[in-house]
Amino acid sequence: MSNKAIFEQIKLALSNAPRNQYTAELHLQMIKFADELKHITAKEFCEEMGLKQSLGTEFSKMRNLTTRLKAAGLNTKQI
């Protein structure tokens, strides 16, 4: 899947998330696509998504957390 398609899918998921679940959905999407987006920086992610740069830290955290979750058996393709 192309980066453009991934970003569109994330934007769609965020737009459909209940207002009080936006951040949780953002984290979930970051985990879901961590492998596909491992070659981009947190800054690039935020720019592409139109997010505040401060959320770049969250992107980095979720990418690191994904490694541990996958080691524990998580299949990100099922998210």
Verbal overview:
It is a single chain. The protein starts with a helix and ends in an 8-residue tail after the last helix. 62% of the residues lie in helices and 0% in strands. It is globular and about 30 Å long. With 79 residues, the protein is an all-alpha fold. The chain has one domain (3-78). Helix 1 runs antiparallel to helix 2 and helix 3 crosses helix 4 (56-71). It has helices spanning 3-16, 22-32, 42-49, 56-71. The model has no long low-confidence stretch (mean pLDDT 96). It has four helices and no strands.
Task: Please sum up the structure shown.
The protein has helices at 3-16, 22-32, 42-49, 56-71. With 79 residues, it is mainly alpha-helical.
Rounded to the nearest angstrom, the radius of gyration is 12 Å
Percent of sequence in beta strands: under 5%
Order of helices and strands: HHHH
* Domain unit count: 1
Distance between the termini: 16 Å
Helicity range: 55-70%
Tell me, rounded to a whole number, the average pLDDT.
96
| Main beta-sheet annotation | none
- Give the structural class: mainly alpha
Basic shape: globular
**Total DSSP E strands:** 0
Give the helix tally. Answer: 4
Low-confidence runs (pLDDT<50, min 5 residues)?
none
List the helices and strands and how they pair.
Blueprint: H1 3-16, H2 22-32, H3 42-49, H4 56-71
Helix pairs in contact: 1-2, 2-4, 3-4
Features:
single chain, 79 residues, mainly alpha
